[in-house]
Here is the input.
Amino acid sequence: MAWVCLIFAGLLEVVWAFSMKQSEGMTKLGPTIVTLVMVIASFALLSFSMKSLPLGTAYTIWTGIGAVGAFAVGIMLLGEPASLMRVVAAILIISGLVMMKLASV
Here is the structure.
């Protein structure tokens, strides 16, 4: 259950990062509220997962999902560039996440 909560927490991190971008510096009420609610939910799920997962593993997986997810959302929804170097960097992050998971078994 901890892993499911951790993955969901990482996905919520992507949501709050995107809504923070949409809030234009927290000046738009709707996206600002979404950001704050998603941050709280993401942290709560991360905290729950840390009850049984090691700190280093949980935090690394959470931030990695958020980083790669925000990268993908930026490309797909915001028209950010998908240069070869950026894609390779994302692949390296994913590789690190897989290794972290395998090391936690």
Notes: The longest helix spans residues 55-78.
